[in-house]
Amino acid sequence: MIPKIRRGSRTHGLLAYLYGPGKRDEHTDPHLVGSWDGFAPDPGRDADADPKITMTRLVAALDLRVKQAGTAAPAQHVWHCSVRTDPGDRTLTDAEWNTVARRLVHAVNLAPEDDPDGCRWVAVRHAEDHIHILATMVRGDLRRPRMNYDFKKAQAECRRIEKEMGLRQLKPGDGTAAANPTSAERFKAERTGRTETPRDSLREAVRQAVAGAADEAEFFGRLREAGLRVKLRHAPSGDVLGYNVALPGDRNRDREPVWFAGSTLAPDLSLPRIRRRLTDSPTDTAPPRPGTSRTDRSGPARTRRDAAGIAERVTAVLDEDGGEAAAQLVGAGELLDALAQTSPAATRAELRDAARAFERATRSHVRAENADIRALRSAARGIVHAGTALGRGEDGGATAMVLSTLVLLTLAAARWHSARGHAQQAAASRQAAEHLRAAYRQAAATPLRAMRERAQALPEPERRRHEATIRAALGEPATRTGHQAGTAERFDALAATLAEAEKAGHDPKALLEEAVDRRELESARNTDAVLIWRIRRLADLPALPNGTGKPKAGTTPTKHAPGRPATRTATPAPARPVADPRRPAPRR
User: Fold this and answer.
1) Do 229 and 129 share a structural domain?
2) Entry pTM
3) Do residues 30 and 132 both lie within one domain?
4) I want to staple 43 with a disulfide (CB 3.0 to 4.6 A). Which of 54, 318, 443, 574 is the partner?
5) In angstroms, how far is CA 587 from the centroid of its own chain?
6) CA torsion 219→222→224→228, rounded to 10°?
7) Whole-angstrom distance, CA of residue 552 vs CA of residue 539
8) In which residue ranges is the amino acid composition biased (Low complexity) (predicted)?
9) CA–CA distance, 460 with 483 (Å, rounded to integer)
10) More confidently predicted of 512 and 319
11) Could you tell me how far CA 308 lies from the centroid of its own chain?
12) Is pLDDT at 554 greater than 70 in this prediction?
């Protein structure tokens, strides 16, 4: 149940709209469901009188005390609150809507119970799913009602009504959410064939432009590269005070662009807030750290592997309840926006939905202390500059690697917000985690299948040995007959990863124990998958098992003596290739 409160000065104008046909003939059977005394004239149901005369009588009754107060009455004396149920809720009766209206005017102190001097009000219903409450803000003693924080009080009362009436219970907000599109914006989007309102499109475009940007010039440049109209607001000194953006082709009735200031798109997209974020400028070329991925990998794969390690460290910050957690959530939002821009086609829609959902989790009233988010912003910048990743090969595997880590990060964010009573932010974090899980299943399908196939080729004693190592690390009992169908197959991909790490010179038992001890695993739905990607990153193994894809160009296997491993040596291409009829055609 969502209340929306506005104030105005024209009682007759608002009533004429409520009892009229609506902007698109959507008003059906307008009538009163409640009033201050239960006897107010109803222009919609009074069949024995002219509706216009009844409307005049109703306006006069509502404005009586306003006229008596004279200049002491507030200029904006009309309090207007629309209350709407969720689309999945049952249809409330007129009596139930009357109860809702009376509880709300009492909650905001317009008409307290058993107060004969309460303000006059009416509740009009012209649709099944909502009502409009109109009240004039002058009491019977001609004083103004005390209505501090009326929106918060109405929200709190709606949460109680939802619970008592068995309606869908919404999450209480804290005033940090972005503004929703207006009805006019939604109707315009429908008329013009847009799938979303310009406000929503612009909010996402601005978020993606700031993801990993080094300075204001790059931020504004990205906005223009995205095809947006950009207008800067300057002080007399020439300094930039703010910015406005508009979608090409989105114009008002005067054929002028419809501009949105950054602060109207979201509280954290104002220029001062963006400037504070840009102070943690990412570095373009940071030297490789020990243990980071090799430089011979593709740019998208390399940056995703590095981002996975950074995201894992941020997850630890959230679990440790540090003072900088709030800022790290902002950086995590930038990382998701960067991935959404450059993700493979198969995962792009889910990642966009994850970034949009997590945007709500990046804002709260908690301020960060001594926060440094340069690592996250550098990861986002690297991903944007590396370009779009492919959905196959090393790029696809690296995408699965970072998504597996981000699922745990968003769940840690949900726990952090829940501990502070941030219901909307916690719900948004869990929603983002579900979208990330869906994207992960798309990205990980091919690499995990290749690992399972690799495990099937391992000698049976080696498979059993790795399985025993896995069960011991996870605290699971060993099977009596070793490798059994339905029990050990879940370990195939993990066993193949341990075998590959052992072949690369690592101790599989020590590596697995380090992966288990790195972070919590309780929130993971698939513990084995989390451990696979941790081990492959810790051991710097390819995201896709060696030999799965095509050999690199310019390399060919050399003949080797029996008992000696084959090696790859670079084979320079001849200046003029000559076909040899005695040799078979090369395999392609």
Assistant:
1) no
2) 0.76
3) yes
4) 54
5) 47
6) -90
7) 22
8) 547-578
9) 8
10) 512
11) 19
12) no
